[in-house]
Amino acid sequence: MRLLLYVLIIAMVFYLKIADAQVKNTSNTEIYINNNTVLYLSGLDLQNQANANFINHGMLVMAGNAIGRDIVNHGSFQSINGIVRMQGTTEQQLQGNSVFNIGTLVVDNGGNGVSITNTSGVRIHQNLTLTNGKLFTSNSSAVYFTTTANDPSETNANHIVGTAIMESRSVNTSAFGPFLNFSMTAGGDVGNLTLTRRTGNGSTTSRGFTPTSGIINPIGFEGLAVHWLVNITNTSPSLTRNMNFTWLSAWDNSKVLTNMQLWRTTTPFNINSPWTIYDFGPHDISSRSFGISNVPLSQLHNAWTFSDFFNPLLLSVLYFNVKKESNKAIIEWKASNEHMVKYYVIERSTCGKDFQKIGKVAPHASSKYEWTDEEISRLKGKLYYRIRIVQENQLESTTPIQIVYHDIPFDVTLYPNYCQEDCQLSIINPASELVQIQIYDNTGRKIASKTITAAEIKMNLSEIADLQNSGIYILECNNGIETRFIKFYR
Question: What CATH number is attached to the domain comprising 471?
């Protein structure tokens, strides 16, 4: 049986609307949508069962005001030259176990998004148009871009969340991209290129679908919420390429973009293998665009991501702490997976950026280390420490920074002291003791109180008290050893 939706007059568009009903294409039947024809479904879902054919050369619109405006495909779904438009009012899904072949997929459902739960995925042959909503995918239900597909235009509000795969394309010595936020200039012959990009933090959607996460998190430190797998067929180490990555602010994952480093895996494409730093930096990538030159093809063929130097991805240092004892700083760390470690360099800085080598330690069997900095007696202020890990292949990474305070008095500042709208309270509490913060009005009545334990505190005064009345106030800060008073005005 074959249902034909044809156009009799070419200049006209044939429009068929089916409401409040499920369309089921049963086994050995066919639904055929001709050119200039729109099939508008505003009822339940469209089911294309096993051994059924759905052929679309026009437009299929899935609309409606309730959950269930989905497409289920267990047969042959061929819309290579047609458009599938998802414009319901809730999250919609592309379900089933047989691949969807779609020319143009439009997501325009009020920002609710479309989830691909089909275990064979969705292949885009022309365009993915994200007008108002995200596309949620996973490793087992990905969106694939064929050799004829265009790079999807993405924004923070409308983008792919999860796994997107550009199928193998012949690139050879030509320039490539950008595609899925990756590009290369012309250069060494890479042969064919397959590109995978994963994005997002893996949060479950409103209908219970969990996209694949783009975050690399080997030992509790997280990188950007995006990573790439660059798969090329020619991996000659004597040939090089210049490559560039970009990303959306939606994938920043709270990283410090002014201190970024580029990472890759030690085993190509195994994101669970140890990650190693490729470009030590740190770089200011506030533009969210980073290019690197002369990358050997043997290394380009790998998985890539970025993180800031506060969140290294190397599977080595599990624990790192610095504590002050009298006029010494005791540096302790514990390591794991040291098979690639050549030595550790202990570094110190007085500004948090320009680090100086103060010691060097070779790895040993216990993997537990302690080193004492006895030079802090000649220093004053905040001292920043980190461990630089040098690997056998001379690649490097660093631990997060630890801070100690030496010869710094307990200090409290409030700026400005005329709080017309709000004031910034800063407290240096080098002993890291409990600080009791209290505010009194001009009659001596206590009107607010807050207790904080931290070595350094920065907060707005409005976080302590909502001062409605104009007048003179007294701020009192006590760390159990000393007390500071500040008079201010409102």
Answer: 2.60.40.10
Retrieve residue 465's tokens: 């008290």
Structure tokens that stand for 384 in this block: 């920043």
* Residue that is written with structure tokens 């690649």 in the block: 395
Residue type, 432: S
Domain end point (choices 363, 379, 406): 406
How many domains does the structure of the chain reveal? 3
pLDDT average, residue stretch 47-58 = 93
State both tokens at 366. Answer: 């216990």
Q: Exposure string (b/e) for 123-147, b if CB count within 10 Å is 16 or more?
A: bbbbbbbbeebbbbbbeebbbbbee
- Last-in-domain residue among 308, 331, 364: 308
* Distance in angstroms (rounded) separating the CA atoms of residues 486 and 2: 85
Q: Are residues 251 and 284 in the same domain?
A: yes
Q: For residue 328, give the H/E element and its range.
A: strand 328-335
Q: State the burial class of residue 465 (Cβ atoms within 10 Å of its Cβ: 0-12, 13-18, 19+).
A: middle
Q: How many CB atoms lie within 10 A of CB 77?
A: 31
What pTM was estimated for this model as a whole?
0.67
Structure tokens at 378: 């000649």
Report pLDDT digits (tens) over 187-238.
999 999 999 999 999 999 999 999 999 999 876 678 999 999 999 999 999 9
CA distance 101 to 124: 6
Cβ count within 10 A of residue 317: 26
**284, 242: one domain:** yes
53 forms beta bridges with: 30, 76
Half-sphere exposure at residue 426, Cβ-oriented, CA atoms within 13 angstroms: 7
b/e sequence 384-421, b meaning 16+ C-beta within 10 Å: bbbbbbbbeeebbbbbebbebbbebebebebeeeebee
DSSP letter string over 392-455?
Answer: TTS-EEEPPPEEEEES---EEEEE-SB-SS--EEEEE-TT--EEEEEEEETTS-EEEEEEEE-S
Which pair of structure tokens corresponds to residue 114? Answer: 């479309």
Domain residue limits at 336: 317-406
State whether 15 and 50 are in the same domain: yes
